[in-house]
Amino acid sequence: MDKQANNELIARFMGWSPDNRHEKSGDFHVWTSKESKNAILGCYLNYDSDWNWLMPVWEKIGKIKIESGCCIIDEMEIRITKCYIKALPIPYTKNKSFIALNIIGDDGCEKLIDTVYKSVLEFIKWYNEQKK
Description:
The strands form two sheets. This protein has a three-stranded antiparallel β-sheet. A three-stranded antiparallel β-sheet has the order 4-5-6, covered by helices on one side. By secondary structure, it is of the alpha+beta class. The protein has three helices and six strands; from the N terminus they run αβββαβββα.
């Protein structure tokens, strides 16, 4: 997936959706949310480059509990060079697997936001699979 598709995946996870009532602007849909009166162009989904966009996603992941019917977050941690998310599918038994994402920046050259972004993406992909 390219950056735009990844950002759209995160936007859907956050409750945004393309709004078909608006015409496309170039290749980018207008996105709306029930929780926001604002609309944004898809090209301005900045989860990959702006902590103000990415941290609410991290916070939402941290609040996922049993009531989601999908998984419970067991541990989350951001460090200077890595990001860690551990989630257990529900119902969880010793025979069931869990996800533990431990994404580490390449040789310390990767920015922390890139590392957290990768972890968030991998978690959302896994989470979506668990909900099926």
